[in-house]
Amino acid sequence: MSRGILFVMSGPSGTGKGTICERLLENKENDIFLSVSSTTREIRKNEIDGVTYNYTTEDNFKRMIENGEMLEYAVYSGNYYGTPKKTVEDMLEKGKNVLLEIEPQGALKVKERMPDAELMFIVPPSMRELKKRLEERGRESAEQIAERLEAAKWEFTQSPKYNSVFVNDDLDACVREVEQAMRDKARSRALVEKLLTEEY
Ligand code: 5GP
């Protein structure tokens, strides 16, 4: 059985990567497994422990880092977030395609550790639109929004390190483009594996 593909969805805060991932999971044809991250942040209303995240203490999170249990982790807005190495490895070994939805520092760490991961970067159509989306979400103060917009500018400079960049202007169109890119990747991977077994 061939190994699954690791897809990493990333991009600045407010670009809609979470919504895009939800849509990718809703479409059963995508046949993809979402990795559940661990975090030290407080659980929010409508979130489920073990489904949205595995919520844990800072001490426990640091112990997991020391034990080498994280494929990557980052500190974001004062909280730790990380991807469990074993679950991701096990699913890939079983031939399952795995999706991570993580912020850009973590995405680039994954690329260092697993160079064959497919990194997808989501950008907004404009800075003004990004600001509007962050404001409408209503989760951050004006000061935090300004910090996120500054962080986004630096993150945009990192986009050449990703395999592909998608503009989330029209959500439906963006999801279709991402799905097409995932299918293309799976198809080219399968073709290469076939070519490697062929006599000439
Ligand atoms: P939130 O607190 O809004 O759920 O997530 C904050 C940010 O952390 C989002 O950009 C999300 O993509 C990112 N994030 C979630 N899980 C992980 C993870 O395991 N690793 C990293 N590096 N970022 C994560």
Brief digest:
This protein has helices at 17-26, 58-66, 85-93, 104-113, 127-137, 142-157, 171-197, and strands at 6-10, 32-34, 38-39, 54-55, 70-76, 79-84, 97-101, 118-123, 164-167.
Overall mean confidence score, pLDDT: 96
Main pleated-sheet profile: 5 strands, parallel
Radius of gyration: 17 Å
Broad shape: globular
Strand tally: 9
Helicity, as a percent range: 40-55%
The strands making up the biggest β-sheet line up spatially as 2-7-1-8-9
Order of helices and strands: EHEEEHEEHEHEHHEH
Assembly state of the chains shown: single chain
Task: Quickly count the helices.
Answer: 7
The fraction of residues in strands falls at 15-25%
> Structural class of the helices, strands and pairings?
alpha/beta
Features:
single chain, 200 residues, alpha/beta, five-stranded parallel beta sheet, four-stranded mixed beta sheet, 7 helices, 20% strand, binds guanosine-5'-monophosphate
Please characterize this protein's 3D structure:
With 200 residues, the protein is of the alpha/beta class. Helices cover 46% and strands 20% of the residues. The strands form two sheets. Strands 2-7-1-8-9 form a five-stranded parallel sheet, sandwiched between helices. The protein has a four-stranded mixed sheet with strand order 4-3-6-5. Helix 5 crosses helix 6. The chain is globular. The model has no long low-confidence stretch (mean pLDDT 96). The site of guanosine-5'-monophosphate (5GP) has 15 residues, from strand 5, strand 6 and helix 4.
